[in-house]
Amino acid sequence: xxxxxxxxxxxxxxxxxxxxxxxxxxxxxxxxxxxxxxxxxxxxxxxxxxxxxxxxxxxxxxxxxxxxxxxxxxxxxxxxxxxxxxxxxxxxxxxxxxxxxxxxxxxxxxxxxxxxxxxxxxxxxxxxxxxxxxxxxxxxxxxxxxxxxxxxxxxxxxxxxxxxxxxxxxxxxxxxxxxxxxxxxxxxxxxxxxxxxxxxxxxxxxxxxxxxxxxxxxxxxxxxxxxxxxxxxxxxxxxxxxxxxxxxxxxxxxxxxxxxxxxxxxxxxxxxxxxxxxxxxxxxxxxxxxxxxxxxxxxxxxxxxxxxxxxxxxxxxxxxxxxxxxxxxxxxxxxxxxxxxxxxxxxxxxxxxxxxxxxxxxxxxxxxxxxxxxxxxxxxxxxxxxxxxxxxxxxxxxxxxxxxxxxxxxxxxxxxxxxxxxxxxxxxxxxxxxxxxxxxxxxxxxxxxxxxxxxxxxxxxxxxxxxxxxxxxxxxxxxxxxxxxxxxxxxxxxxxxxxxxxxxxxxxxxxxxxxxxxxxxxxxxxxxxxxxxxxxxxxxxxxxxxxxxxxxxxxxxxxxxxxxxxxxxxxxxxxxxxxxxxxxxxxxxxxxxxxxxxxxxxxxxxxxxxxxxxxxxxxxxxxxxxxxxxxxxxxxxxxxxxxxxxxxxxxxxxxxxxxxxxxxxxxxxxxxxxx
Length: 675
Hints:
The chain has 675 residues and is an alpha/beta fold. It contains 23 helices and 12 strands.
């Protein structure tokens, strides 16, 4: 699909010259890989299968934390390898080796997990000083880490805008649109065209081996919340436009690096939801409205892409291109995690300072990204001698590739997580699998043995009610009948479970079966269940479960979405009453959807002025002037008015919720001719 024939809604710049794309990719490849010796060829250096994109202050901090964890794990591993090689070179006596191996000389705390997957990490912010903020933070060892972790790249976008988005997602989205609609070759910053080719232009071509992209951002802010979905849309747009490009000359290319290979890429937003409950939190805060906008936008796009049957012709590529959504799935992680964890630990959440709260929430998120990465990592992502040195049989691992995730996870996703310590040589039956599973779905809490935060990333219902339900679940001997009627579990369409084991630990067949039994009982209507078994990537036995689609029916999700609709769409008569709240619940539950009710309660377009404490009509021309100056082509002009959400987004979001609310499966009956 040529640049000239792109749908008018999407004016994203895409480099179409394949030679130029390959050239730009080689620049990125040479930057992220160590210096090669003369006999090695740059072309053989593959890109990691995973890329993390941290956007905004919150997103870039979390992506940085993940990169730091990976770097530290590799450093520990390499030190271990070096000391082992020194021992071997000294030809140490076998009895001494036995003593070192069997006595816990280093102590419990010295045992580090081996984690050698190194994703590409891209950090982007509308703050001019993003590089300074990262480089000069006082974190110990940060400077050395930044010098050595070459796969970490900073996207400097300051020539488009040198300040933030003022806590307004529509401004963050508009600025991202300027960045992505502007010809990447015209940026003063040479690095941007190379990063653009890696992230946007080259998805699906053989020269770029990255297949999984995770966008990390805060839903409550302006920069991350606005930019993330626009970056995701540009990437999806570039990828899908290649799949609909049927030019015959593709088959005659001599250099196979040029060719587009139809392999699914899996992209996910990792969305940090703002604090929603607690003594001092009011639901009318701008953070909640911002998050509600993002959730409404995403599920309305997901409805249009995956479910909308009102479209005329599904076979027309242009029609599909107009209905793209930014990611295959969006993982939801609540910032209330830390508050619940403190309360469960007997502490007072009101007295935690903001930095500590953010630090622990970020730790939980980093853990989840870690486990998702290990579950799909290909062998080329590891150090080449890793499996041999670690004594791991690669045949015993069960991996999830991009295609598995592409088919298994769509729409909003929640995470359940728990881990257990298993000592070396410990018997299989010593781990309580029932307890491990229960801890993974509890309210967030600290695991005192491992210092990890466990629990579910978004609560299915209000915290006191859910806490009581979990207590009864334990007391009843794990009878799921009180939990499995909650929509969060009952209407879940697919599940992905990732079990990570230390290298010397074997999980018994019965333990694995018990895990599957718990999942089956808790989520009775799940259509698709996928499992991954990862060996040697963790010091502990850990369980991560990804629950798809049904989290959009959780209390938090609905509350944020309706708060936004009331603030930015509601007609004056209904803005301050609970009539809209009740009406939307009824619209989801009623057998027939009366769309005229939406027209009754809401105006045609969102009003961004409702969350800005300033004159929207004065701001709008300032940003549009910036667009005209940076993209000097009147035919490619986009007004801020054009990116407002409209009443169709509201209708589609409600239709999506109705679809998930009605999710059922029919049980398979055994048929026989032998009556």
